[in-house]
Amino acid sequence: MMDDEPIRFRNYYRCDDCDVEWSDDWSCCCDDECPSCGRDYTPTHSEDLEEETF
Ligand SMILES: [Zn+2]
């Protein structure tokens, strides 16, 4: 049984079309939508947040 999965990674994204960069926290390295055009992007890179405990 799984409760809420802990936030594990901070993923960074970039949309070249909108010239926009954003980041989001996830329990895994997954795609996110551009906040401007809604297209799916894979992370340009990810930070491990293991040091932060929730
Ligand atoms: Zn975009």
Automatic annotation (TrEMBL):
This is Uncharacterized protein. It comes from the Bacteria.
